[in-house]
Amino acid sequence: MTLKVYGLTKCSTCQKAMEWFDGKKLAYKFTDYKVTPLTKDQVSGWSKALGGWESMINKAGYTWRGLPASETKDLTEAKAVLLALKNPSLIRRPLIEHKNGTVTVGFSKKVRDFLS
Known about the structure:
Elements lengths: L2 E5 L4 H13 L3 E5 L7 H10 L3 H4 L5 H5 L2 H4 L4 H10 L8 E3 L5 E3 L3 H7 L1
Parallel strand pairs: 1-2
Antiparallel strand pairs: 1-3, 3-4
């Protein structure tokens, strides 16, 4: 089975991840979620697999800081999923669906070790 990698083509972390995958000869399929819209089921499933929306949403990025407080206040799981669908740049990158069914975000040493 091939890794499923989601992110943005121009994201430097996504680019590093794909270079690393290529160097390790790991099969992956990259999906730019600005080009191929995500589904509510996908985002909801990722949120659950990561233990909640807080692990999936990047609150330190420009997109989050640019949102009005009315959209980010009192977020629930359902509201966070809808917000991520409306603003996919909020999702931490890269988001990886692993062969064993787990989901990770980012490309830390821990993620690389998991893939090795």
